[in-house]
Write a structure and sequence with these properties.
- With 124 residues, this protein is of the alpha+beta class.
- Helix content is 31%, strand content 29%.
- It is built from 2 helices and 7 strands; from the N terminus they run αββββαβββ.
- Strands 1, 2, 5, 6 and 7 form a 5-stranded antiparallel beta sheet that branches. A two-stranded antiparallel ribbon has the order 3-4.
- The longest helix has 22 residues.
- The relative contact order is 0.16.
Amino acid sequence: MNLIKIQTYFLIFVVYSFTCNRQFENQTYSLSTENNIICTDNNCQGTYQGKEFINGDDVAHQFSNRMSSKVGEQLKTLYKQGKFSKVDFKNIVMTTEGMGTGNVAYYLKIPFSRVENKCDAYII
């Protein structure tokens, strides 16, 4: 290849990299799940309804991450109140209606079980 072709390919690559691929880089997706996750002394549960993917990002999966955060916060709160609890993994309920269609209704309920001793409030 001659130098002009190499420079042309390089220029096309640079222009493409800074325009096409970067247009969504700083965009954030509002899942509006903060109000859809409710935690009690017995469980955390919530629903995400909407697009499964936006610009290649697994938006629906982000709901699971937010739920995990809420569960952790709730378990810490319960622990500080002396209500020693842990996740009851056997009774987790999850449904994903419409998965693979582009739009999903994702329901997740994570129950807690109460334990007597604070040292038993851990994940097994």
